[in-house]
Automatic annotation (TrEMBL):
Taxonomic placement: Bacteria, Bacillati, Actinomycetota, Actinomycetes, Micromonosporales
Residues annotated as domain CoA-binding: 15-108
Gene3D superfamilies: NAD(P)-binding Rossmann-like Domain
InterPro entries assigned: CoA-bd (IPR003781), NAD(P)-bd_dom_sf (IPR036291)
Protein's recorded name: CoA-binding protein
PANTHER family reported in the protein's UniProt record: COA-BINDING DOMAIN-CONTAINING PROTEIN, CYTOPLASMIC PROTEIN-RELATED
Length: 144
């Protein structure tokens, strides 16, 4: 598991402190990891905001076409897009003032990491958010 940028919050800290998570690349297809993982995180108490230009609703939440379309702040941008798309998503996350960016397992962006580091934004890559949640037995803010 990769750690965050030096001096920044750990993956565990980021998840513990997040309330609202925008999921870029959230899928409507229940057989895909980009559906199952965010749905599990939602079930454990976080508000999931799907970002998918081809869907109106996922997980019972309104889906937004882009991060810029979300009309409220998010605590974390979780990325389920190929590594080739990750830098562009990092740039969008920085543009909306997201305090943390998390690239899922097998997703890397050296340029995105450098951009996040320069902006002082917490950054995780190549790490599954559901695994971190399970390993540390973290519950979201909506879980009693």
């Amino acid at each position: 598991m990769r750690a965050t940028v030096d001096g920044m919050r750990s993956a565990e800290q980021i998840l513990r402190e997040a309330r609202t998570i925008a999921v870029v690349g959230a899928s409507r297809d229940r057989t895909k990891t980009a559906h199952a993982v965010p749905q599990q995180i939602q079930r454990h108490g976080w508000r999931i905001v799907p970002v998918n230009p081809y869907a109106d609703e996922i997980f019972g939440e309104r889906a937004y076409r882009t991060l810029a379309d979300i009309p409220f702040p998010v605590d974390l941008v979780n990325v389920f897009r190929p590594s080739a798309d990750a830098t562009a998503v990092v740039k969008e996350a920085l543009a909306i003032g997201a305090p943390a960016i998390w690239l899922q397992q097998d997703i890397f962006s050296p340029e995105g990491r450098a951009l996040a580091e320069a902006a002082g934004v917490d950054y995780v890559e190549d790490t599954c958010i559901a695994v971190v949640r399970a390993v540390h037995a973290i519950s979201g803010p909506r879980t009693p």
